[in-house]
User: Fold these one by one.
Assistant:
Number 1:
Amino acid sequence: MSSSPTPAPRSSVRRFTVRRRRLALAAVLPLIALLATSCGYGSRADKGASGSASPAAGAKKLSADEVRIGYFPNLTHATALVGVERGIFQKDLGGTKLKGTTFNAGPSETEALNANSIDIGFIGPSPAINGYTQSGGKSLRIIGGSASGGVKLVVNPKKITSQSDLKGKKIATPQLGNTQDVAFLNWLKGKGWKVAPQSGKGDVSVVREANSVTVNAFRTGSIDGAWVPEPTASELLAAGGKTLIDESSLWPGKKFVITNIVVSQSFLKSHPDVVQAVLKGSVDTNKWINANPAEAKASANEALKSLTGKALPAKVIDSAWPSIRITDDPLAATLRAEADHAVTAGLLKKPDLKGIYDLDPLNKVLKSEGRPAVSDAGLGAP
């Protein structure tokens, strides 16, 4: 009969246990980091570092070392794409460094703003409204406009030839509660069709998916169309789709806000000089875009190539670019209407939007250039 093994000293057991725990932790930490990176902000974030730039040598620093700006790799965010790519924002910021981060849709960017991961964002009206109301009016302010238009419902013409054919079909939007999602749900409600706002199930199936996968989903037939911003809309057209609705046609004067500039209230309070510099960069960029449309289109495409790994084909960007109007005006009156659309869609209770705008910094920039002030439609901060 063999004798029982002699137990190891407690100190040896303790050292072994510590080593084993350290090895396990070392194995787990990369996985945690990977999960954090892949999840990003929100359910369908598509976030990545973008055109950050170093200030010019000797440039005077403002009150912050760095300003973190969020935006989308969409042509409806052309102000950010071009302003960052051409260094216009960085020039106006002087020695304060710009750090850019991109997102797939507004709700994820709003979460980043609320989590203090970005300071300023280019964002659609619906996520701005949601972020403001859900925080009791304490999270953000809209400080400027950027773009109007550039949104279409593109469908498979073999399956859908009229609006009535949408019943029973699968139509994509970029994310639950984003501006296009709200617009589509509101439009469906106006047609008398029933769709559960959270699940997207009903007479028409609303499929929430990132713009980056929508075109392939359309090609494979897993969706029948999409209510999306540019350039995704024109990518769908190039893939054989047909425009069923241009959202501009649904608005008086064909004007509606699609992209605002927002800032966290804490950053606005602590660094008003940085905020004004960003707005100066926005105004300078918009002026250059509108004066140089061909060059601006090429610059936006170069920025998209840097962010996504490939430029848009000429056929796509040539189709998309004319449908977007670049503007400093936030078109505040249309924000009220978009808030009503979210209520109609069942995604929002009647909001109190008083105080959502602070356009004083923008109007100072416009005044310095001899231009008229823009209106907050009675929704300005006290």
Number 2:
Amino acid sequence: MIARTTQPLQPFAAIKKVTMPSLLAALFSAAAYPAIAQTADLTPAGAEKAGTSSGIPAWTAPGALENGWSPGKRRLDFFKYKSDKPLYVIDASNVDQYADKLNPGQVALIKQTKGYTMPVYPTRRTCGMPDFVAENTKKNIGFAKMSPDGTALADAYLPGFPFPHPKTGAEAMWNAKLGYRGVGIEFRDQITMTSPRKGSSGDGLKFVSDTWLYFPWGVKGGTTFSAAGQVEAMNYFTYKSPVALAGQGAMFTAYAAKPAEVFYYFPGQRRTRRMPTYAYDAPQIGFDNQYNIDEAYVFSGLLDRFDWKLIGKKEMLIPYNALGMYDFTAKYEDAYQPDFINPAYRRYELHRVWLVEATVKQGVRHSAPKRLFYIDEDSWGLAGAVDYDAQGKISKVREGYSIPVYETGACMSLVFAQYNLNDGRYVVDGSMLAAGKDAKWIVDGADDPHFKASFYNAENLRALSER
């Protein structure tokens, strides 16, 4: 694993018959929001402050949300809005009623998956940012720039959003890639799971690993992306179970404009291998071909195989304040049901969302030649994605479960799920749900070697793996 997107939608059967341009026109022809010129009308992240008559409140700086939380305690217990109850629940019987607020993948998933539901809660705009992140975001206006081909970030002040007023889909995606999350994340006993094959009596696949993510640009105060070597992230993980994978591990260094450097250790061979093609739509090792490299965290990796178009913005139902998905005290069998995550741990809210369309470039191949990405306007977090196959049918649906991170003062989605509509199976990764331990967001990693660039190399991976 690595870290190892104003007219009602058509029914799913009809969606299969329409072209992508006509579908997007139906989705967004009446939904695009005009640019707002006055900074006073925008949040520090570039979102609209104003509320709507449909239930989105006006944005105000969220302030403290945790009220007494400390590391090791269950986050949901200290959430300011923990007493919220669902306003309604969407299921197969009423999905068409709410289809204009859902993406086509969500509609298809509900109609195809027996018993799948979406509990919808009051909208809470809980996403803010530290003052130094807001200042860097402001400084990026007129400074941040993309590479000549328009797919890689060349430079920006970080941590901060490079393009608070994006003009292209690639700019919006880089905002999503570089949301503030401290210098790194440590999560022990992280769970990655794949549901059972349809018709199987088995329990599916469950993997447990220790994982670290390091963001060289995430230092307090700030730096520039060029000064950080144009490195997006570094990652180290080692499997603890199942027995067949125990001891297997990897290190990744993800760059903005060149292929990731990947080293993988295989304990059976007692060998560390460089993996130059472990990228894009290459299947991740051990997941029954259910999970590709660039599907991690809703999207990971280079943007260079696609053309990225910023379609517009509209109100949509997305995972939000989903602290139930970070409940490390939950029971595994209760949380991960055979066909979907237990809806008791999921939470959806109405928010304004940017839509980005990715179309594979001419002469380039990818298993998902068309993709849609849904990005929350307040946090620039990837809330969801829909992949289309070569026949133009929806193949995969992803969700990123965003929460306000108490350590950083910003929002992030670490846990995510992917539903494969062709196979009727799903994958969850980056998960503390039922893990027994919580993740730790680190704002100052000066004393931890996992948050130094010198840690991430083949020799160190071999030494750590052979202890």
